[in-house]
UniProtKB/TrEMBL annotation:
This is Ribosomal RNA small subunit methyltransferase H. It catalyses: cytidine(1402) in 16S rRNA + S-adenosyl-L-methionine = N(4)-methylcytidine(1402) in 16S rRNA + S-adenosyl-L-homocysteine + H(+). Pfam families: Methyltransf_5 (PF01795). Specifically methylates the N4 position of cytidine in position 1402 (C1402) of 16S rRNA. HAMAP family: 16SrRNA_methyltr_H. S-adenosyl-L-methionine binds at residues 54-56, 73, 100, 121, 128. Belongs to the methyltransferase superfamily. RsmH family. Keywords: Cytoplasm, Methyltransferase, rRNA processing, S-adenosyl-L-methionine, Transferase. InterPro entries: RsmH, SAM-dep_MeTrfase_MraW_recog, SAM-dependent_MTases_sf. It is found in: Cytoplasm. It is an enzyme of class 2 (transferase). It comes from the Bacteria.
Length: 337
């Protein structure tokens, strides 16, 4: 048995040994409402592509007693904890140690031709944030690791100590949208010649000192963007997402649904573009009639990106940056529903 995780919130750690209390599922009611209509038939298959501590999946298993769950995650510890949480539903779950762009392989190995629903809850998980030795949070000193799968070969420290100044500036600008990327990158290269980077506190202080004082007054913690960029580079998150979302849409059965929950603009942009592409015909705009089989294959279920309510953010501050998009598959093999 195996499983999955994700979330992209920066906050003080909140350690707790109980997985169910450590993990507060974001926008849970809305996610269940969006995916629910696709899961009501007996034997419906739901993929939680980012299982994490299993909060969303637990709600689906409770709400849809005839549905089957396939949970994916690259983090072995997340799989273990989610397996404990979902043990009462063991006959209806299959948890797999895999990155979510491996979905086609997983479905093929499980002999599942199509799925009825899939959830992506992107970013870094609450568990990963709350465990200091994972190195995801800049608010505490920890080894510069940032691997979602601790069996992967490259850590954040490896990147900081080996990439050129130009390479570092590129990832800080592209993945962190950091305006002072070049200044920070140059400073990193100078400082690592004195002593290699190993811990987050030193990097956090360097970033803060590299940014003009006036720019530190807005936008949250000065190191937030740098830590985000490093994490994305370590885990290849955006490249994985660009492969995973089209594969997920392709795997949907007719009337199957996809929900994507993002926590920063880079993820949300990829989600928006992928889902929007499916709502358009693949024939020239000036063609008077759209031939059968060329109609849009997706219908959007959300108007733009939906956000959590003020009440939810007050109860769970880590939900503040969440953005949800959803779509339904309305065409398969040339047919329109």
């Amino acid at each position: 048995m195996l499983s999955a995780v994700r979330r992209d919130r920066w906050a003080e750690p909140m350690p707790n040994p109980d997985p169910s209390s450590r993990h507060v599922p974001v926008m849970l009611d809305r996610v269940v409402a969006l995916l629910g209509p696709a899961l009501e038939r007996p034997g419906a298959v739901l993929v939680d592509a980012t299982l994490g501590l299993g909060g969303h999946s637990e709600a689906f298993l409770q709400t849809f007693p005839q549905a089957r769950l396939i949970g994916l995650d690259r983090d072995p510890e997340a799989l273990r904890l989610a397996g404990e949480r979902l043990a009462p539903y063991s006959e209806r779950i299959t948890l797999v140690h895999a990155v979510y762009d491996e979905l086609p392989r997983v479905l093929d190995e499980l002999d599942i031709p199509a799925i009825d629903g899939i959830l992506f809850d992107l970013g870094v998980s609450s568990m990963q944030l709350d465990e200091a030795d994972r190195g995801f949070a800049y608010a505490q000193d920890a080894p510069l690791d940032m691997r979602m799968d601790n069996t992967a070969p490259t850590t954040a420290a490896d990147i900081l100590n080996s990439y050129s100044s130009a390479e570092l500036a590129r990832i800080l600008f592209q993945y962190g949208e950091e305006k002072f990327a070049r200044r920070i990158a140059d400073r990193i290269v100078r400082e690592r010649e004195i002593e290699p980077f190993t811990n987050s506190a030193r990097l956090s202080e360097l970033v803060r000192d590299s940014i003009p004082q006036a720019a530190r007054r807005t936008g949250g913690h000065p190191a937030k963007r740098t830590f985000q960029a490093l994490r994305i580079e370590v885990n290849g998150e955006l490249d994985v997402l660009r492969r995973a979302l089209p594969a997920a849409v392709e795997a949907l059965a007719l009337h199957g649904r996809i929900v994507v929950m993002s926590y920063h603009s880079l993820e949300d942009r990829i989600s928006k573009q992928t889902l929007a592409a499916g709502t358009k015909s693949d024939v020239p705009d000036d063609l008077p009639v759209i031939p059968a089989g060329h109609e849009p294959y997706l219908k959007l279920l959300t108007r733009g990106a939906e956000k959590p309510t003020a009440e939810e953010v007050a109860a769970n501050p880590r939900a503040a940056s969440a953005r949800v998009r959803a779509a339904e598959r309305v065409r398969e093999k040339g047919l329109v529903a």
